[in-house]
Design brief:
mainly alpha; Fumarate Reductase Cytochrome B subunit; two-stranded antiparallel ribbon; 6 helices; 2 strands; 68% helix; elongated
């Protein structure tokens, strides 16, 4: 198993970052739904699950940034045979998913009025306590935190979190099934196996 990507296969670092991202996204959704469905507001359990959600969200941001950096400076495996339109759609889908996974943690952090107790190890100050918040929001935009939070909350929860990210994830998984069971190509195996099955 190689660390770096080759023209035939993804390396172990790309694979670990990919699957860690998937696990963290699932954990993020599970924590937020558990909080809303199974806990009472202003209870210790509610707060603990919120902190788990915040911690996972910030970790997703770091992992996605690392994925983008690694992808930028690494060879990507050669695409499977297909039309130019199919390759363009695949590329646009990947870029859109990366963009959403950057916007979600940013809007979540900036629109949360609580410090993040990062996996109970240390505190990350809430955005409204930072110098950048006072520079951007208070001094230049002239908004209160409540006014500033409202559009961020709408983007984070109602637009991206409730449907847009689900659409992109469903499309991503559907594409994997299409490549694996209809086209019978090696797209999935490049991200799961240690050896190129065609080599």
């Amino acid at each position: 198993m190689t660390l770096q990507n080759t023209r035939q296969n993804y390396g172990s670092i790309a694979k670990w970052l990919h699957w860690l991202s998937a696990i963290l996204i699932l954990a993020s959704y599970l924590s937020v739904y558990y909080r809303h469905w199974f806990t009472e507001p202003k209870t210790a359990e509610n707060w603990s699950v919120l902190q788990l959600h915040l911690s996972v969200g910030l970790t997703i941001f770091v992992i996605v940034v690392l994925r983008i950096i690694w992808r930028t400076f690494n060879t990507s495996p050669a695409p499977e045979p297909g039309s130019k339109l199919m390759h363009l759609m695949a590329k646009m889908g990947h870029y859109s998913l990366y963009m959403l996974l950057i916007i979600m943690p940013i809007t979540g952090y900036m629109g949360t009025g609580a410090n993040t107790e990062y996996f109970s190890m240390f505190d990350i100050p809430k955005f409204s306590d930072t110098a950048f918040y006072h520079f951007l929001v208070s001094n230049n935009l002239g908004l209160t935190f409540k006014e500033f939070e409202k559009p961020l909350d709408y983007i984070h929860k109602d637009v991206i979190g409730s449907w847009l990210l689900w659409i992109m994830i469903t499309g991503h998984i559907s594409a994997v099934f299409y490549h694996t069971y209809i086209k019978n190509d090696y797209t999935l195996y490049k991200m799961t196996t240690n050896k190129c099955t065609r080599c």
